[in-house]
Each structure stands twice: as C-alpha cells, then as structure tokens.
Design goal:
Number of domains: 2
Order of helices and strands: EEEEEEEEEEEEEEEEHEE
Structural class: mainly beta
Number of strands: 18
Largest sheet: 9 strands, antiparallel
Helix content: under 10%
Strand content: 25-35%
Radius of gyration: 20 Å
Shape: globular
Strand order of the largest sheet: 1-2-3-4-14-18-17-15-16
Distance between the termini: 27 Å
Length: 273
Amino acid sequence: MTFRTKLENANGKIVILPKCDIILSSGLLGGYEPSAYDAPTSTQGFPLGTKLIDGERIWRYALAGAAALVAGQPQQQAAALHAEAPDDIVVGAASAAGDYTVTLTSTTNIACAANVYRDGYLVVNDEAGEGHSYKIKSHEALSGTSNAVFTLYDPIIVALTTSSQVGITRNPYASTIVAPGTTPTGIVLGVAPRSVTAAYYYWLQTGGPCAVVAHAAIAVGAFVTAGLTAAKVDPSGHDATYGILQTQQIIGQALTLAVTDGESFLVNLTLDR
C-alpha cells in the first residue's frame, strides 16, 4: 500500500509521512504520540524524512551515521558513497514512459547491497530523459559491471534509452553526520536536539527555535551559518575571515545572544518549509 498521510492529534502535533510502503497497522508508527525528545532507537519507527510539527517547531525523522551525535550540533547529509554515484551511470536497458523500473549498469566502485539507496533519489543527468528525477522504492544489488533494476515510486515521464545517464543518492536523512568544518560534503539539514547513539534513529530539528552551539559571539537577529566550523555555527559575516560564503549555509537567525565560542544559544531554524 503506497500512501501519503497527514496525522494530527488532540494536542496539535502533526505528523506528515513521505511517500512510503509501510502499513499503518504494522506497528511502524508505534501507536504513541511522537516527541522529538524520545530516546533514539536502533529500530526504525517512521519512514526517513517523516515530518513532525509541534507549534512553531519542526523535526524530520533521521538516521545517525557511524558517529554519535551531541545536542546542539548542526548535522549534514552523508557524503556520496562513491564519487561515481551522483552522475553518469549508464542505463543498461531502455525504459518506456510509464514504466516504474530503470536498469542501471554498475561499476566496480559503486557496488553495494540491495536497497542501500531505498527512499533515495535517481536523477537523469544526461541524454534522453535529462532533467527528471524520481524517488527510489527499492533496487537490486549493484555488483561489478552487471545490471541492476531500480524500482521507482512514480512512473518514468520521458522514456530512457541506453544513451541516458543517471545519478543516484541516498535519502538525505540517512546516516547524518556532524557538520565537519571543512568544505561541506553535503547540505546542512538541521540540528541534533539531544544526544544520539551512532546508527540510531532520531528526530532532527529543522525549523523553529532550537539550541545550537556557537563558534563565536553572534548578535540577536544575525543570520547564522554552518559549514566552516565542525559541530558549531557562525555569524554570516564570518566570510570576512575566510574570504568566501559559498562553503557556508544559512540555517536561520539568532533568537538570543551567542556570548562566546562553545556556548549554546537559540536559533530560529529556517531549514524546513
């Protein structure tokens, strides 16, 4: 059963499920009122990217990467599994408009188990079908230079040929990592609202008032950025020191004063719609 559902309880909390293949009665939704401060779990309770709204605050259901997370640290999406995955993967067999499957020819470098890219995305980056993207429902293992079938949630819009080339990426909320403080390898998605065990599922805050660790003093109302300092945020004027703003991402505005390096303050996150 494929569905998109918006659930609202008597307390005004809203849960919006992304396109997924879970059944409500299966227990995946837990049968309880979700809270962003629930203890992270080793088993998945909601589809990745599920949106939780409580008043002016917003969270997304995510999976932590291989390192534990600390409250107040900005999180980015995981880097690509291999540099060859985001583009120019050969389409191994034609797919007609209306088909729900795409056949990709693997390379040795992008070899992976089945469904690593489940709920991620496929983008046609060159030739026939270019400019279209699709959410991945499931896929076969990628091995050597053999073909693997990717099944999509939605039908192909423009037919693909064996000249078409595509890229694949995991769901952005899969295996989030602490913003590394170097040239970003992914977009900043939100802030960890509590400590999280490595490889556990948790609610990542993406919108509204949130406690965040500062790297420097930040005035109330200033735009706040992440991307140049590991696990901390900076004022947007920080580019005066580094000479560039391209490697930073504005994540919101300061609601309270950030006094000094290493102390937390409130940021009105604007990363989610």
